Amino acid sequence: MKKMIVAGALAMLPVAGVCADDGEKLFKKYCWGCHHQTAEAFGPSFSTIASKRTKEEIVAQIVDPKSTSKVFGYKRSSMPSFSDLDPEELDALADYIMKFKDKR
User: Fold this and answer.
1) Stronger pLDDT, 101 or 1, i.e. the higher one
2) What is the model's pLDDT at position 15?
3) Considering only CA atoms, which of 39, 43, 26 is closest in space to residue 77?
4) Is residue 29 domain-resident?
């Protein structure tokens, strides 16, 4: 099941690059209410997420949090689905989140 979700997310990733600033703009528009870059808020920080997940898993969680949360071992998910984001937006947002991966 996990492989199917990740494979579906991979198929949504764009081939062409996008502007690096787009990810931060999308974060401020969609994520800021529950997530912060390095501090825990209502949801986990981007540094926590990036240290535990691949880019493809992050995209899958954004698109279908109800399905992926169980695959990732959570009992429930209060995160809404952002399936209306286009592939380039998903890619930019996932790239932005991955910038906070712990370097250790």
Assistant:
1) 101
2) 42
3) 43
4) no
Residue for token pair 């910038």: 99
Domain that holds residue 53: 1-12+43-104
Tokens standing for residue 70? 């169980």
Q: Does some domain include residue 31?
A: no
> What is the model's pTM?
0.77
At 25, which amino acid appears? K
Number of structural domains, the chain? 1
CB distance 58 to 49 below 8 Å? yes
Instruction: Quickly tell me which residue has 């995160």 as its tokens.
Output: 79
CA 8 → CA 13, 17, 37, 99, distances in Å? 9, 19, 26, 23
Do 73 and 7 touch, CB atoms closer than 8 A?
no
Could you tell me which of 101, 80, 93 has the C-alpha nearest to residue 38? 101
Nearest to 71 by CA among 85, 87, 88, 52: 52
